Amino acid sequence: MANSLSGRFLILTIIFVMLAEVFIFVPSIARFREDYILARLERAQIASLALLATDGMIDDELEAELLENAGVLNVVLRRDEARQLILSSDNIPPVSFSFDLRDPPAAVLIRDAMRRLFRPQDETIRVIGEPVREAGLLIEVTMYTGPLRAEMLDYGLRILLLSAMISIFTAALLFIAVRRLLVTPIKRVVHAMTRYAEAPEDASRIIEPGASVRELREAEETLQTLQTQLTGALRQRERLAQLGEAVAKISHDLRNILTTATLMADRLDGSADPAVQRTTPKLVASLTRAVNLTEATLAFGRAEEPPPKLERFALSRLAEDVIENERLTDSDGLVSYGCDVPAGLVVRADPEQLHRVLSNLVRNARQAIAAKGEPGEISIQGMETDDGWRIRVADTGPGLPKKALDHLFKPFHGGARKGGSGLGLAIAAEIIRGHGGRLELSETGPEGTVFSISLPAKVAALP
Fold first, then answer.
1. Spatial separation of the C-alpha atoms in residues 280 and 355, rounded to whole Å
2. Number of domains the chain is built from
């Protein structure tokens, strides 16, 4: 029970209530001591007035009875500037302490009360006070402390017992309230989380907020949102796994078909047609790249790209090859291409993977300009930086729509053009991350779009 929330709350409530009662007990016991002594002063004054009324004509036995009823050993009155011993017992012990109760400070009363409570010796004390109803200037009595301490202990025990009962009763009520308002709703949330963890793909196990406490309801609503997102992500992951399995089955047959096409294209080298001789190397290179792509498709089905095979090569030749391939597929003739890459610029990367990235970016730009229906321009720029290389692919297209910006590098969230799957940029970003670099959208708008590729000069470890 001590390890549970309600159990600890119960224990802490009892402790805090008892501490509060202690702060109440100290001034209460001091007040009780003051009232006890003042009562003795009042009784002593009444006894002395009775004696004065008879002009002292009482016997010793009655005088002793008056002192015993007053609970004092002697009584001294100061009246008319004269100090007079009214009643007195025989053989009074020496006085140990004197106390003046004429308007004493609260701190002094508390100090004297605690000192008497923890001082078990039966001592004789002298107390000075003001007579009631102004019957004199002051009254002074001598008394034993034993009865006073006994009464203080009895009163203190009764106070402590009452405090304990109040603490237990208050703690029990708070315990029931905490279990009803906090512990039970929390257990419900924990049960819902455990039930959901057993089958997170089951949407029927998503928690339904029902707590009446605002903070707990906010927690349930947040948990509901997280569970809904997780269930959707698991379903999408399952679809991706199924897609990867299907692509893996297709890739083998598709690779055989492309290999056959590559062999047939090799025979075109013997053609005497100059146009065929000029396009055959491009066709063979494209078919070879397609074969490599089908072999790497399974890697994307496993949600990862194969590690790049890094080598140094001239970036200008690869960029021109990308532009030439896109120019051959551009039947509309709306796009003009530019390559601003220094001839001597050598980069360190996987040429096949970088070719895929640039081809994807240039193709997306061409399709965006074609959808706009107006002439445009696409350019590839390359430069060397202090820590590596930077490649920019810029176009004068209409810019990316907001839907594409929200999920720019996420697969299967819709592409930048109508009917797109959104795979191209996701694959490109993954490839560049594999090089230890970054693919970023530098700018987009009605004036055009610019993508920036950063490649590091040194890659310590590739993910």
1. 19
2. 2
Dihedral Cα 406, 410, 411, 413, nearest 10 deg = -20
61, part of any domain: yes
DSSP string covering 369-435, please? HHHHTS-EEEEEEEEE-SSEEEEEEEE-S----HHHHHTTT-TTS--SSTT--SHHHHHHHHHHHHT
Q: What is the mean pLDDT of each run of 10 residues along the chain (463 residues)?
A: 68 78 84 91 84 71 83 83 76 89 89 90 90 75 92 89 81 80 83 86 83 83 89 80 68 66 69 73 74 60 68 94 85 86 93 92 89 89 93 92 77 52 76 91 91 84 43
How far is it, in rounded angstroms, from Cα 202 to Cα 181? 29
Contacts of 348 (CB under 8 A, 6+ apart): 310, 311, 312, 455, 457
**Among residues 125, 155, 170, which one ends one of the domains?**
170
**Spatial distance between the Cα atoms of 223 and 192, rounded to a whole number of angstroms:** 10
Strand partners, 456: 388
pLDDT at position 440: 93
The boundaries of the domain holding residue 104 are 5-170
CA angle 348, 386, 463 (to 5 degrees): 45
Last-in-domain residue among 170, 192, 220: 170
Q: How far is CA 143 from CA 28, 79, 98, in A?
A: 22, 21, 11
Q: What is the CATH number of the domain that holds 311?
A: 3.30.565.10
Maximum Cα–Cα distance across the chain? 161
